[in-house]
Specification:
This protein has 257 residues and is mainly beta. It is built from no helices and 21 strands. Strands 13, 14, 15, 16 and 17 form a 5-stranded antiparallel β-sheet that branches. It has a 4-stranded antiparallel β-sheet with strand order 1-2-3-4, with no helix packed on it. It has a 4-stranded antiparallel β-sheet with strand order 5-6-7-8, with no helix packed on it.
């Protein structure tokens, strides 16, 4: 249900009329929501909110994606690049060492971060320029991942990791403007092995993917795109559209799941 809490304008009068990238911190009552200037945090499941801008000078700083980890670390991604905080108090923010892309305001990616189930320090990130990166030190330093899907290419829209994994093996999912796919990664104790090929999702579903999530059952996937919501019960071997417009389920232009 809608929150009854009202968040007043920031001290410098910057408006915050849009919300992006809602994030729930594991094992807590904390919720984070990006805005056009900083972000909002609730420590009581949305009953009350407070405003935070990682930039101490109060300048306008759109935050479009947030990841809050169980160890208290929070990473934000927005107009002024990536900002990191290592504590639940959300004080002492700093930028990543690479100072990755400053964002163009017209592109807003609400699912730019993903964390590996193997470690809170293993974080994956995508930007608006079709780049995919990973970090094994909590976001301080980043390495680039090759993401050549061929001719069908466009701006990035999300990065996700299947929370179900086997030993030191995880599946990394990456979506961009025209299609999406996944790659199996292997952790060798000091770094990831990226030698496996990308498995590109077949064009049996509508193009322009927007988000993807994982069901509780093994091999169950849900994907959203401009055509609606799709479901796969066999880990991408086939997809089924959930509902159609003439059956009372007008699921077009779905952006998050």
């Amino acid at each position: 249900h809608p929150t009854s809490s009202i968040v007043n304008p920031s001290a410098n009068g910057t408006s915050r009329f849009n919300a992006y990238g809602i994030c729930f911190q594991p094992a807590s009552s904390n919720i984070y929501v990006g805005t056009d200037s900083g972000f909002l945090v609730s420590n009581d499941l949305g009953m009350s909110w407070r405003y935070i801008n990682p930039q101490s000078n109060g300048q306008k700083n759109g935050i479009y994606s947030i990841i809050a980890l169980s160890n208290g670390k929070v990473l934000t991604y927005g107009e002024l690049g990536i900002w990191i905080c290592d504590n639940f108090n959300l004080t002492n923010w700093y930028q990543d060492n690479n100072k990755l892309n400053i964002l163009d305001r017209k592109w807003k990616i609400p699912n730019a971060f993903a964390v590996s189930p193997l470690s809170n320090d293993h974080i994956f990130y995508t930007d608006i320029e079709d780049n995919l990166f990973y970090s094994i030190d909590g976001g301080k330093n980043w390495k680039k991942i090759l993401t050549d899907f061929g001719d069908n290419y466009g701006r990035s829209v999300y990065v996700k990791i299947n929370p179900n994994y086997n030993d030191n093996q995880i599946d990394l999912f990456y979506g961009h403007k025209t299609t999406f796919g996944f790659k199996t990664l292997f952790w060798n104790g000091s770094d990831y092995n990226f030698s496996s090929k990308w498995n590109v999702i077949p064009y049996g579903i509508h193009s322009d993917p927007t988000d993807l999530d994982f069901g509780r059952q093994d091999k169950l996937l849900y994907a959203t795109n401009d055509g609606g919501i799709y479901k796969s019960i066999n880990y991408n071997q086939s997809w089924t559209l959930l509902g159609t417009p003439n059956k009372g389920y007008d699921a077009y232009q779905i952006y998050d799941i």
